[in-house]
C-alpha cells in the first residue's frame, strides 16, 4: 500500500518525520528510526512515545476485536491524534518542522526547506494579523518566533530568498511593516525641514522595554532586511501600485524605531545596490520624502539644530559609528550615476556636512574638520 491516503493515515499515529522515513524507506531505515531516541527539527521520537503508541494500538485492536465478536457492524476509524504525540502538540510546528528545535540547529539538513519557508511565511503573516485583535488566545510571541526562524532559514539557505520574491510575498511583508508602523506612530515629523526631530527620537530611560507592537514591527523589519540581500526581492520592494506602501519612506521612519535604526539603514544600503535594476525608483522615493537630508542630519556633528540628531537617537558610541558609516554608504549609492543622480549630487554638494565626510575612510567615524568647526 502506498499513496497520499496511506500517508495521511500514518500521520494520525506517527510524527511527520517518521511518516517521511516510512514513505522513503528502505525498511531497515524505518525499523532503525522506530527504535532510536531522536530529537531533531524534523522528528521527535522517544521510547516513551513508542511505548504509548504501542499500548494505544493494542487497546484499539482489543476493543475492535471485542466488538466484532458480538457480530456487530462497526463503523470504525483511526483517532485524530494518538496519545503518543500529545506531548508535542503545543510545540509550534510548520511544514513538519519544530520551530524551536530548528532555531537551536538552523544548519540541520532539512528534507524540504522550501516547504518550511512557505509555511513560515504564511503562518508569520497570519500570526501578525492575529495580534491586531485583543484576545487572550493570541500568542503575541509567535510572530517573533516565526520571524527568527525565517531569518535563520534565509541565512543558511540564501538562495531561498529569490523563491520568496517569485511567490509574491514581498508586497505582503512591506504592507505588514507599513501597518505595524502605523500602530505605534513614530513619525519623522518636520525633521527634513530642520525644525523638529521629536518623532525620530526615543528615550530608553523612560521606555526600558518595548511594547508587543514595537517588537512585532521590528520582527517585520528583520525579515525585510534579510530579504533585501536578494536582488529579486530588492527589485520587488521597489515595485508599487496604487494604494500600496512604498518601502523607502517606511525604512526612513524605521530609522527612528528603538532597536531598528541600524537594520533600517543597512536595508536601505542593500536595496540601492548596483545590481538592483529598479534602483532609480527607490532613489526617487528617497528624494520625494527627503531621505538625503535625513541622512545628512545623521552625519551632522555640530551643536544646535539638526546636529543633536545622534544624541536624540540615544545611540551608544558603537551604534553611532555604524550608523554614520551606513548613512555615508547609502548617500554614495544614491549619488551613483542614474536617473536622479544629478539632483542627489546637487543636494550633497551644497552640504558642508557632506564635504567633511565624502572622502573620509569609513574606519574614521569623525568628519575631517570636526574639531576646527566645533572651535
From TrEMBL:
Gene Ontology CC terms, in alphabetical order: endosome membrane
Biological processes per GO annotation: endosome organization; receptor-mediated endocytosis; regulation of early endosome to late endosome transport
Protein name (record): DnaJ homolog subfamily C GRV2
InterPro entries xref list: GRV2/DNAJC13
Species: Gossypium raimondii (Peruvian cotton)
Domain of life, source organism: Eukaryota
Amino acid at each position: 500500500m502506498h499513496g497520499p491516503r496511506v500517508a495521511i493515515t500514518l500521520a494520525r499515529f506517527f510524527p511527520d518525520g517518521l511518516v517521511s522515513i516510512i514513505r522513503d524507506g528502505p525498511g531497515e531505515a524505518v525499523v532503525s528510526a522506530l527504535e532510536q531516541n531522536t530529537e531533531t527539527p524534523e522528528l521527535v521520537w522517544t521510547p516513551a512515545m513508542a511505548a504509548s503508541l504501542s499500548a494505544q494500538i493494542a487497546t484499539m485492536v482489543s476493543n475492535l476485536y471485542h466488538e466484532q465478536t458480538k457480530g456487530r457492524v462497526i463503523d470504525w476509524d483511526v483517532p485524530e491524534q494518538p496519545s503518543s504525540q500529545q506531548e508535542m502538540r503545543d510545540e509550534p510546528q510548520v511544514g513538519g518542522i519544530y520551530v524551536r528545535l530548528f532555531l537551536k540547529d538552523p544548519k540541520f539538513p532539512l528534507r524540504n526547506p522550501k516547504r518550511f519557508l512557505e509555511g513560515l511565511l504564511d503562518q508569520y503573516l497570519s500570526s501578525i494579523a492575529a495580534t491586531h485583535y485583543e484576545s487572550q488566545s493570541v500568542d503575541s510571541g509567535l510572530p517573533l518566533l516565526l520571524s527568527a526562524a525565517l531569518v535563520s532559514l534565509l541565512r543558511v539557505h540564501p538562495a531561498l530568498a529569490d523563491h520568496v520574491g517569485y511567490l509574491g510575498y514581498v508586497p505582503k511583508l512591506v504592507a505588514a511593516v507599513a501597518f505595524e508602523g502605523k500602530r505605534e506612530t513614530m513619525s519623522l515629523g518636520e525633521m527634513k525641514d530642520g525644525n523638529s526631530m521629536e518623532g525620530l527620537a526615543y528615550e530608553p530611560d523612560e521606555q526600558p522595554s518595548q511594547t508587543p507592537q514595537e517588537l512585532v514591527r521590528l520582527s517585520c523589519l528583520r525579515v525585510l532586511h534579510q530579504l533585501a540581500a536578494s536582488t529579486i526581492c530588492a527589485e520587488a520592494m521597489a515595485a508599487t501600485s496604487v494604494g500600496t506602501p512604498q518601502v523607502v519612506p517606511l525604512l526612513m521612519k524605521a530609522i527612528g524605531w528603538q532597536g531598528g535604526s541600524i537594520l533600517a539603514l543597512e536595508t536601505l544600503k542593500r536595496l540601492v545596490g548596483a545590481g538592483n535594476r529598479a534602483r532609480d525608483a527607490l532613489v526617487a522615493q528617497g528624494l520625494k520624502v527627503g531621505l538625503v537630508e535625513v541622512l545628512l542630519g545623521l552625519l551632522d556633528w555640530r551643536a544646535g539644530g539638526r546636529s543633536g540628531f545622534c544624541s536624540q537617537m540615544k545611540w551608544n558610541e558603537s551604534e553611532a559609528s555604524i550608523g554614520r558609516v551606513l548613512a555615508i554608504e547609502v548617500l554614495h549609492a544614491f549619488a551613483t550615476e542614474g536617473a536622479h543622480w544629478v539632483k542627489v549630487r546637487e543636494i550633497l554638494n551644497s552640504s558642508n556636512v557632506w564635504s567633511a565626510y565624502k572622502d573620509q575612510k569609513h574606519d574614521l567615524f569623525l568628519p575631517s574638520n570636526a574639531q576646527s568647526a566645533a572651535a
